[in-house]
Specification:
CATH superfamily of the largest domain: Hcp1-like
Order of helices and strands: EEEHEEEEEEHEEEEEEEEHEEEHH
CATH topology of the largest domain: Pnp Oxidase, Chain A
CATH architecture of the largest domain: Roll
Number of strands: 20
Distance between the termini: 79 Å
Number of domains: 3
Shape: globular
Radius of gyration: 28 Å
């Protein structure tokens, strides 16, 4: 599941021993996955440092300190190649999908991401433990894109596209490979794989590719933790079409409760009321509002696991489409949101927002450095809203200050007033005037 990834180096120096070539081979179980040929390299920096978890290094018997060295190289050329020359001419059969095996990581609520790439030579379907939308949903986004990370592996068509993008990066008119891609957030259920959310990208290209080793301070050097050699790829695309497979126009209610582990049992429950009379009630573990006193239009964010929220996703998709069009009337697409801070079944604080719209949206995987590859990943939605109206709700204060309550002898806030003398007693206002 987590094969040891070995890095092999071969150096050949020139006559003055200042410049040299380096081959870096990523391999698993003696099978080469990727080879990088660096040309005319030199040592740019050499550092010796001590890694530790600050105070834990002194107190813990399982960790401690590690004195390590770091060497930085600068090279004048790079060429990479896939595992074999035959991969350069590799193609799948018409209509066939080269689907790579599912990765057995631990994912929060069994939600994971796979990407299906449509190249000229065929189709590859790959699961990535880390996924993020980069552009396409915010205002003034002129293009769209996404980002993935995963353990370095052999993907013939994708690796060929990466090599082609690098080889043509400095050409004024290159032959960069354009392709299509579908990203899917799916949930494993007893009934099978359930598609929660998807995005269809067109005219995509590889914008960047990096290989990074994740590790946590001194732990892997002390044989406590481990290393994860990770391949990150950044894609840019010309067009994007969000997919909302579970949306049903006849479905007027949508309620989702994940029952997150919240401190002191305090949680944020958001109720959305949309223009078509649909109501969605969703709990979010992360709620943030700021600058409500200084901004003309209040803004807030809600963050939680990717879930089955078709009505809310519809608003996200409408906003993404409208952001690309100038002069459009957004009045019919605005909606209201109440965010109630709940302790068990009691509202302790609330915020009522009116005439809202989605001004940004992001899907991103959260992971704990290299620990995610050994323990867990969590695929998150981040919704950002901008509203025209805002009203804070303080239930406890409202209960104290409501005059009708003062007429009740059993009112807990004013239990003694009925025994005061007449000149101090509360007299209800005549509402007929």
């Amino acid at each position: 599941m987590y094969p040891d990834v070995l890095e092999g180096f071969r150096m050949s120096c020139n006559y003055n021993y200042k410049f040299f070539d380096v081959d870096v081979v990523h391999s698993s179980n003696e099978n080469s996955r990727k080879i990088f040929h660096y040309k005319d390299c030199q040592v740019a920096d050499y550092v010796i440092d001590t890694l530790s978890h600050t105070h834990r290094g002194y107190l813990s018997t399982s960790t401690g300190f590690a004195i390590v060295y770091t060497i930085d190289f600068e090279c004048n050329g790079l060429h990479s190649e896939v595992t074999s020359k035959s991969d350069l001419t590799y193609r799948t059969e018409p209509g066939a999908i080269n689907e790579f095996p599912k990765i057995e990581y631990n994912n929060a609520d069994n939600i994971r991401t796979w990407v299906m790439f449509g190249f000229e030579n065929g189709i590859e379907k790959i699961e990535f433990p880390i996924f993020k939308t980069t552009t396409g949903f915010a205002e003034n986004d002129n293009d769209s894109g996404f980002y993935v990370e995963g353990i370095e592996n052999r993907y013939p068509l994708l690796n060929s596209a990466i090599d082609n993008a690098r080889d043509n990066r400095n050409l004024p008119v290159g032959t960069n490979v354009n392709f299509k891609a579908i990203t899917a957030s799916v949930q494993d259920t007893p009934e099978g794989e359930k598609l929660l959310r998807g995005i269809y990208y067109e005219d995509c290209r590889v914008k960047g590719s990096d290989i990074t080793t994740y590790y946590d301070h001194e732990e892997p050097f002390a044989l406590v933790g481990g290393f994860a050699v990770n391949h990150s790829i950044d894609f840019g695309c010309e067009e994007m079409t969000p997919l909302n497979p579970n949306y049903d126009v006849s479905r007027k209610t949508n309620e989702q409760n994940y029952d997150y582990n919240m401190a002191a049992d305090v949680q944020a429950i958001a109720e959305f009321r949309f223009h078509d009379n649909t109501i969605a009630t969703i709990d979010f573990p992360i709620f943030k509002q700021d600058q409500v006193l200084s901004k003309s239009y209040p803004t807030f964010r809600l963050i939680g696991l990717v879930g089955d929220y078709p009505p809310l996703y519809k608003q996200v998709d409408i906003a993404a489409k409208n952001n690309q069009i100038s002069g459009i009337n957004l009045a019919d697409e605005l909606f209201d949101v109440d965010v109630n801070i709940m302790k068990k079944d009691k509202t302790v604080r609330g915020f009522s927002y009116s005439d809202c719209r989605v001004n940004n949206y992001e899907v991103a995987t959260q992971q704990g450095n290299e620990e995610g590859f050994f323990f867990w990943f969590a695929l998150e939605n981040t919704f950002e809203f901008e509203c025209r109206g805002y009203h804070p709700i303080n239930p406890s204060y409202d209960a104290m200050s409501k005059p009708d309550h003062l007429e009740n002898n059993n009112n807990k806030y004013w239990p003694e007033t009925q025994r005061w003398s007449d000149e101090f007693r509360y007299i209800p206002r005549d509402k007929s005037n």
